Amino acid sequence: MSDQASEDAVSLAELLETGIAALKGLIPLIWLQSKIPPIQFLIGGVVVLLATFLFTISPPHNPAEPPIIKPRVPVIGHLIGLLRSQVNYFSDLHTKSHLPIATLPIGHRKLYVIFDASLQQAALKARDMDAQSFMVDFVPRIFGIRQGTIDRLLGRDGVHPNIMADMEHVFKVALSGDNLNHLAGTTLGTMADTLNGIDEKTGLDVPNLFLWIQGLVGRATAKALWGKEHNPYRDEDVLDAQWEFESNMGPLVLGVLPRLIARKAYLARKKIQSALIPYYRSSFDQRDASVSEFVRARSQLLRKYDLPVDELAKNEVSITLVATTNALSTLYWCIAETWVRPDVLAEIRTEAWRAVVAPLLEKQQSEDGDTATKDSTSTNLAPGNISEITITAGPSLESKCPLLASCFRESIRLASQIVTARRVLKDTLISGADKRTYLLKAETNVMMPAKVVHRDVATWGDDAEEFNARRFLAIQGQGVRFENSTGNTEADRQQRNMKAAFVPFGGGKHLCPGRHFAFTENLAFMAALALGFEIDGLQRERLRMGDSKRGETAKPLPGMEGGPVALRKRRGWEGVKWEFVC
Ligand code: HEM
User: Fold this and answer.
1) Transmembrane stretches, by residue range (predicted)?
2) What is the tally of structural domains in the chain?
């Protein structure tokens, strides 16, 4: 039992004892005076005792803390709600309470949930709130590593320093600049091979678009991460185990009999770890030059902490998970939502043609000495006699394809069901846009559900639940960031509210370091797909978003992935070979 758990057990036992002792002396006296039959008295006594116990164990609450939402079933009601509805429970609570922030008592502990965007931003920026305390509780259970391993990484063994600052540096360096370009370029290279391999005449039948994208992104990202030669995920069974693990890992968090209660995730994890252990034992992470900096620098740092190599390998199951799970679902929604809107798709094709093909045609004409100026705003979007199209992925593509970028953001706004979590380290005050201040007590967990702020009608308008391809056009600037408005008009305020309420990548010092990779990969692939391919048969009425259980980017409901489709090269584009550079 962990220290915290045993402390909890002691305080519960003490409370019980005190309650019983207090009642003990009174019981005979009350019974003698009441003349109630003994059996009824006994039942009544148990009820009173239970009620007293339940009342006594409510956590203390300071009026400066966020207001309490009382559960319908005392003490365990919120726990039941969370187990039953998972992250949707937070949306339900917000719909019923309309509170900006709340305290949820659970047993004799409590949890804060922040529903308001400006308060979420304040919490993400607060100094004395951190994410790593969650690692202590959950990482060993999810990845099946020893508690001692995590203690060593967090500097609790008294020998090593806390790894987190160095790890954050690794994330930053490995997922930016040349390393980002290399990772994204290699991933997109494998994705291009798939596009180029589609038969000109017969096309490709895709029974399930989501699974096709999952396989495409998974294979390409894993190869780019782990290297060309020894990639542990090149065995399709290992990649399938990755999806099996990801979909069923929830109950592992409980840390109770994982082999029984989380059997699917347990077996899938074992399969992946069996592939990763020989990889790390052979030091392919350091020896193979084609391995990404993300994998290489992480394990180099972990090796400095003298982790047994098998523990290191087990821990690295997280890498493919973070690099694929949200990015591939976002790509799926972006493709699906765009292709069922022919007007939006046509505009995206025009944008992409101007950004990618028109410059190539102009270059070719000037090389051929063709002086007749061609109109680069032409709507005749054939590739001419160009047989190789290289798309330069990255911020310049984004700025030249604003509608495509808007669709990407809109997809992630609707699909993100992420709940960013922090633990309060010291008592902290936060205040939001209405200047009200709330006290958050130390040692309390804080949950910030993105779905609530991403679908807030006051921020996004009456169509907050709908896909609006152009929603972000007005507020997005150049590059990945929104323009920062300091003005005081209603439009400026609206822009600031939207910016604060767009939190798919979390924030503060843990802001997702892979967001540029996700943008680069998704936008470039979308541009190639829009220019060169048709997706026949996609049915709007057979597209339905599921609820994410763990709090990640939502997948489609099984059977509601848009129906079977056929990918086909567009007329006039059959001979084009696609390439990407970053
Ligand atoms: C659409 C795609 C993605 C979404 C929506 C997403 C979302 C998130 C979120 C919400 C967090 C937690 C942030 C916080 O606690 O404040 C996070 C952390 C992280 N993400 Fe992503 N992510 C995406 C893609 C990626 C990719 C492609 C990679 C790697 C190649 C990646 C690597 C990471 C890492 C390493 C962290 C941990 C950062 C830390 O704890 O300091 N993510 N991501």
Assistant:
1) 12-32, 39-57
2) 3
For residue 18, the Cα-to-chain-centroid distance in whole angstroms is 45
ipTM above 0.90, yes or no: yes
pLDDT at residue 464 tops 60: yes
Instruction: Answer yes or no: is the C-beta of 135 below 6 A from any ligand 1 atom.
Output: no
Does the Cβ of 556 fall within 6 Å of ligand 1? no
Q: Which residues of 461-497 are buried (b: 16+ CB within 10 A; e: fewer)?
A: eeebeebbbebbeebbeeebebeebeeeeeeeebbbb
Exposed/middle/buried for residue 259 (C-beta within 10 Å: 0-12, 13-18, 19+): exposed
Domain span at residue 240? 132-317
> So what's the pLDDT on residue 536?
97
Please say which residue of 291, 317, 343 terminates a domain.
Answer: 317
User: Of the candidates 240, 164, 134, 94, which has an alpha carbon nearest to the alpha carbon of residue 550?
Assistant: 134
Q: Is 125 in the pocket of ligand 1 (CB under 6 A)?
A: no
- Both 479 and 569 in a single domain? yes
How remote is the CA of residue 545 from the centroid of ligand 1, in Å?
21
330-344, 381-395, 473-487: least confidently modelled range? 473-487
- 223-259 pLDDT, tens digit per residue, is 999 999 999 999 999 999 999 999 999 888 888 888 9
Residue nearest ligand 1's atom 30 by CA: 323
Q: Which atom of ligand 1 is nearest to the CA of 131?
A: 15
Which atom of ligand 1 has the smallest separation from the CA of 167? 41
Nearest CA to ligand 1 atom 18: 512
**Atom of ligand 1 at shortest range from CA of 132:** 40
pLDDT in tens, 23-63: 443 444 444 444 455 566 566 656 656 655 555 567 899 99
Does some domain include residue 117?
Answer: no
Residues 21 and 160 placed together within one structural domain of the fold: no
Indicate if ligand 1 lies below 6 Å from the C-beta of 295. Answer: no
Label residues 432-445 b or e (16+ Cβ within 10 Å = b): bbeeeebebbeebb
Please write the tens of the pLDDT for every residue from 11-22: 334 434 433 443
For residue 334, say whether it is annotated as part of any ligand binding site.
no
Entry pTM: 0.88
